[in-house]
Amino acid sequence: MIGFDAVNRLFDPPDVEGGIVLAVGLLGAAVNIGAAWALARAERRSLNVEGARAHVLTDLYASLGAALAGALVLLFDLNIADPIAALLVALLMLRTAWSLLRDSGRVLLEGAPAGMDPEAIGRALAGHPGVVEVHDLHVWEVTTDFPALAAHVLVAPGDDCHRIRRELQAELGDRFGIRHTTLQVDHEHAEELLDIEPRG
């Protein structure tokens, strides 16, 4: 709606009270700077906090844009500055909304966290000494900065599967930052026995 109204005003710029726009923009900027400062002190990171920060920053930029437009109108009688500022703010809002939708969609759809390559993680697990095979690997994000992993791992017969599981968990935590893991570790021959049909 802001963009639609701004486009209409571009072709037919109305008279703008530059002083009022400047004052309201500066007042809004001051309020949003205080809110941004309060949110910056929050140690907890989550999509909710990120969304609140993005909202406050967008409001801050909108207020600064309004103040700049008001100053241009006041100093140069440039009424077209107001709809141009509104268009820039609308584009900024779209960019922020897309970023939040992308990140929340990744969590809801249980996609791999940004910056994590499941294939590279799988190769690292499969390359660990004693590991014969890794399958059913799934890496997802429970919430912001909380990656999780589940996988089925086969080890050589006679190897200590509990020791290998602990080593894999340590490697996942140290190398990839994944500390919430569910690893089902079995001996290779046990997997083969599961495929044998019982005889009556």
Give the low-confidence spans. 196-200
Arrangement of strands in the largest sheet: 1-2-3
**Average pLDDT taken over every residue:** 89
Number of helices: 7
Shape: elongated
By secondary-structure content and strand pairing, the structural class works out as: alpha+beta
Task: Characterise this structure.
The chain has 200 residues and is α+β, with helices and mostly antiparallel strands. It has two domains: 2-108, no CATH class; 118-194, GMP Synthetase, Chain A, domain 3 (2-Layer Sandwich), CATH 3.30.300. It is 62% helix and 16% strand. The protein is built from seven helices and three strands; from the N terminus they run αααααββαβα. The chain has helices at residues 2-11, 18-40, 47-76, 81-108, 118-126, 161-176, 188-194; strands spanning 131-143, 146-155, 180-187. The protein has a three-stranded mixed beta sheet with strand order 1-2-3. Helix 1 runs antiparallel to helix 4 (81-108), helix 2 packs antiparallel against helix 3 (47-76) and helix 3 runs antiparallel to helix 4. Mean pLDDT is 89; it is low at 196-200.
